[in-house]
Design goal:
binds flavin-adenine dinucleotide, 314 residues, 12 helices, four-stranded antiparallel sheet
């Protein structure tokens, strides 16, 4: 008797793929375990566009198994020393590309200085995925509904990459070019993500709506708000799930600038965010529902940020 095979459901390219386990075998590939960044970049350069970096494997391996990708070479960077270091410095936080989601979520400097990052990571899949998945992999994978690209946009992260031509720094706003498309060249790897320091007493909020716990977000919204003398000095609002890449709600941010953070200002900013988005309809939600969620969630994250700002300042 043939044993029953469980169905496996994974979301890739915005689609929930369901297949029977026995079909899930990757195409053949050559495996290279890089011992250094130089090993990794030269293996990528030697194989043109036909090699992929393997980090946590939580997105890449399902894509191989579903035969959505068939690279000739996988360059495993898990043995490269120092790539998972998380370090505070005068400018903020330097996060190694191989830092695992769970490592970051439970890291004391992240909890103390970027609680919005820790909160967002709590919504990434399930613990088993957070134990393996890495921040570099999540940014490079660039899913339009993923939490870490959203937080990179929110916090104006700088993404440090190295390729055959040497290192360069890419601002998060220039990094995400579209769904699963980034500014990375084929021979480049992400080595570090720099998060600039936030002003003291900055409040924050993070909210998302999913069909089921652990799913990718239908819509996710994150905000930080800094205040002085009762007025907003800087508001940042970032959205995911409403376009090909995470985006800042810049018109809504402008609405808040110089205002007291009261109900009227929050309502005006929420409406502005909702009016500015042009989401599409897919299997999971209609464009109208996503637009509605942007308004509701923006209101919630701004209220949460305001409460936290007041608490910090008192
Ligand atoms: C069931 C399930 C549920 C999930 N739910 C969520 C969710 O709710 N939210 C969410 O955000 N994610 C979710 N994920 C994805 C998860 O967060 C992955 O960990 C992440 O997207 C990829 O990280 P990784 O380290 O596993 O990368 P990998 O899978 O190893 O690689 C992903 C891609 O990035 C490239 N890459 C990896 N590292 C680098 C690097 N340093 N430099 C250059 N390129 C690199 C790879 O070549 C590949 O193209 C889920 C995954 C699964 C299986």
């Amino acid at each position: 008797m043939i044993p029953q095979q469980p169905n496996v459901r994974v979301r890739i390219l915005g689609i929930q793929w369901t297949r029977v386990c026995r079909e899930m075998k990757p195409p053949p590939f050559k495996y290279i375990a890089a011992g250094s960044i130089e090993d990794a970049t030269s293996a990528l350069a030697d194989n043109g566009g036909d090699a992929k970096v393997l980090a946590g494997g939580q997105s890449l391996v399902p894509m191989l198994n579903f035969r959505l990708l068939a690279p000739a070479v996988l360059v495993d960077i898990n043995r490269v020393p120092g790539l998972d270091v998380v370090e505070e410095n005068a400018d903020g936080l330097a996060v190694g590309a191989l830092a695992r989601h769970h490592q970051l979520q439970t890291s004391p400097p992240v909890g103390a200085r970027y609680p919005v990052l820790a909160a967002a990571i709590g919504h990434v899949g399930h613990l088993a995925i957070r134990n393996r998945g890495t921040i570099g992999g999540s940014l490079a994978h660039a899913d339009p509904a993923a939490e870490l690209p959203l937080i990179a946009r929110l916090l104006d992260a700088e993404i440090v990459v190295i390729g055959a031509a040497g290192p360069r720094i890419i601002a998060a706003r220039d990094f995400f070019l579209g769904a699963h498309t980034t500014a990375l060249e084929a021979d480049e790897i992400i080595t570090r993500i720099d998060l600039p320091a936030l002003p003291p007493g900055t409040g924050w909020g993070f909210e998302e709506v999913t069909r089921r716990a652990g799913d990718f977000a239908l819509v996710a919204v994150a905000a930080t708000v800094s205040m002085a003398d009762g007025q907003v000095t800087q508001a940042r609002i970032a959205l995911a799930g409403v376009g090909e890449s995470p985006a800042r709600a810049s018109a809504a941010e402008s609405v808040l600038s110089g205002q007291a953070l009261e109900d009227d200002a929050i309502d005006a900013a929420s409406q502005s965010a909702r009016d500015a988005v042009r989401p599409s309809t897919d299997l999971h939600a209609s464009a109208d529902y996503r637009r509605h969620l942007v308004g509701v969630l923006t209101g919630r994250v701004l209220n949460a940020a305001w409460r936290r700002t007041v608490r910090e300042a008192s």
